[in-house]
């Protein structure tokens, strides 16, 4: 049995998920905002938190950051009442999918393979700016990821061939093989890796081009490192639970 916290501003959404996970024998608490959720988290220390990214006041990422600071072994999954997209295509879980994710975590726990406990997720950072590479790599390493870095698309493709990561953080504008061209190469080579774009290029045609080549998200520089963790974590955890 797992202690679960459901954080969503809509009571209907909380009830829908609560009925499903309680039926599986889990102990469930609820909160409708970030302040209440933090109080419940400190009191109960749940091992699994279902979090709405759309909490009032854009409080979802900030709450996620506090939870990660307090308990890196707690699993946080994004949950929404209806299927939807978030920030260029990050898909949230509906109630039935969230319940299946809770069951999948039980299986991982039983096998001793719980996310962020037994295996560090691998993230490759491809960016021609040394300061960006260094700061992102340092931050994600502290957060529990295994990281590597490359200064351009050619070096990124070479790193992928040696050891495929769970996620690639990819700049758009780089000398030689730029971000969109690297995405196209990955598609041609049939390499099934998720790619999240990190760039200062806010032009819609560029975003559309990256999405067409398979990018799953698009973060504009400068970005908050806490929000980067929020985004990277949600993608990696979703992959581990497939």
Total domain units:
2
What percentage of amino acids are in beta strands?
15-25%
Kindly report the spatial arrangement of strands forming the biggest sheet.
8-7-9-10-11
- Give the helix tally: 9
**Broad structural category:** alpha/beta
Distance between the termini: 21 Å
CATH superfamily of the largest domain: Response regulator
Give the helix proportion (percent range): 40-55%
CATH fold field value of the largest domain:
Rossmann fold
Description of the structure:
This protein has 242 residues and is of the alpha/beta class. The protein folds into 2 domains: 3-110, Rossmann fold, CATH 3.40.50; 122-240, Rossmann fold. It has helices at 11-23, 34-44, 60-70, 95-110, 130-142, 153-162, 179-189, 204-212, 225-240; strands at 3-7, 27-31, 48-51, 75-78, 85-86, 90-91, 122-126, 146-150, 167-170, 194-199, 217-220. Strand 5 (85-86) and strand 6 (90-91) form a beta hairpin. Helix 6 runs parallel beside helix 7 (179-189). The longest helix has 16 residues, at 95-110. The two termini are 21 Å apart.
């Amino acid at each position: 049995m797992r202690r679960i916290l459901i954080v969503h501003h809509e009571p209907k959404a909380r009830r829908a998920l609560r009925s499903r996970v309680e039926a599986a024998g889990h102990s469930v608490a609820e909160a409708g905002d970030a302040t209440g959720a933090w109080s419940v988290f400190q009191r109960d220390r749940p091992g699994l938190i279902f979090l709405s990214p759309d909490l009032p006041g854009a409080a979802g990422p900030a709450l996620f950051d506090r939870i990660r600071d307090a308990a890196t072994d707690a699993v946080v999954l994004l949950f929404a009442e209806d299927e939807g997209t978030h920030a260029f295509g990050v898909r949230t879980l509906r109630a039935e999918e969230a319940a299946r994710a809770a069951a999948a975590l039980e299986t991982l726990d039983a096998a001793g393979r719980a996310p962020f406990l037994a295996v560090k997720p691998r993230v490759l950072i491809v960016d021609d700016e040394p300061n960006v590479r260094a700061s992102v790599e340092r931050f994600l390493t502290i957060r529990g990821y295994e990281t590597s870095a490359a200064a351009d698309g050619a070096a990124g493709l070479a790193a992928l061939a040696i050891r495929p990561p769970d996620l690639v953080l990819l700049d758009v504008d780089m000398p030689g093989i730029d971000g969109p061209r690297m995405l196209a190469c990955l598609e041609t080579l049939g390499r099934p890796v998720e790619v999240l774009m990190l760039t200062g290029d806010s032009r819609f045609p560029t975003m559309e081009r990256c999405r067409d080549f398979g990018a799953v998200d698009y973060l504009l520089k400068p970005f908050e490192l806490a929000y980067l963790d929020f985004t990277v974590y949600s993608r990696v955890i979703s992959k581990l639970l497939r």
